[in-house]
Amino acid sequence: MAYLVDTNVAARRVQANSPLKPVIKSAMRKLRGQGETLYITPQVLVEFHALTTRPVTANGWGLSPRQALLEARKIEALFPVLDETPAIFPLWRSLVRRHNVVGRQVFDARLVAVMQAYGIPKILTLNASDFRRFSAITVVEPQNV
């Protein structure tokens, strides 16, 4: 089996002072111990760069682009990165249409499209409510592993 790792999980896993880091590390250890593979997609790295280079006053980390890229390398060392494929966009468009997705939720729908393109049934996320509308996937929070 396999999981896609949401940006919020990947980011908190490498954030030194995150109070969620121990829970996430434990969940990852358990899942890998069960033979699960934890993947990310390039979108996770793009979202991570946006998060880490945003000012702290705008709910970001306030890193320089160079620092953000160095932090992203930590994520890339932890998770295999799935390739972008031509199948993703039509799946995303279908999900957006079927579920009336608007605003920033389009990024969550795109993660689901990647999951569908690769046959990944589960997502590990800190924001389970963002994915509940997508009944074809299983949403798992680190504290529930």
Verbal overview:
The protein is an alpha/beta fold. The chain has one domain (2-143): Rossmann fold (3-Layer(aba) Sandwich), CATH 3.40.50. It has 6 helices and 4 strands. The chain has a 4-stranded parallel sheet, sandwiched between helices. α1 (7-14) packs across α2, α1 packs across α3 (42-53) and α5 crosses α6.
Q: What is the element layout, followed by pairings?
A:
Layout: E1 2-5, H1 7-14, H2 21-33, E2 37-39, H3 42-53, H4 65-78, H5 88-99, H6 105-118, E3 122-124, E4 138-140
Parallel strand pairs: 1-2, 1-3, 3-4
Helix pairs in contact: 1-2, 1-3, 3-4, 5-6
- Strand arrangement in the largest pleated sheet: 2-1-3-4
**Which CATH class is shown?**
Alpha Beta
Query: How large is the radius of gyration?
Result: 15 Å
Helix content range of the residues, please?
A: 40-55%
- Sketch the major β-sheet: 4 strands, parallel
The CATH topology is what? Rossmann fold
Q: Beta-sheet strand percentage?
A: 5-15%
The CATH superfamily turns out to be 5'-nuclease
What is the count of helical runs?
6
Unreliable runs: none
Order of helices and strands: EHHEHHHHEE
Number of strands: 4
Return the structural class: alpha/beta
Distance between the termini: 14 Å
- Under the CATH scheme, the architecture is 3-Layer(aba) Sandwich
Shape: globular
Mean pLDDT: 95
Q: In total, how many domains does the architecture comprise?
A: 1
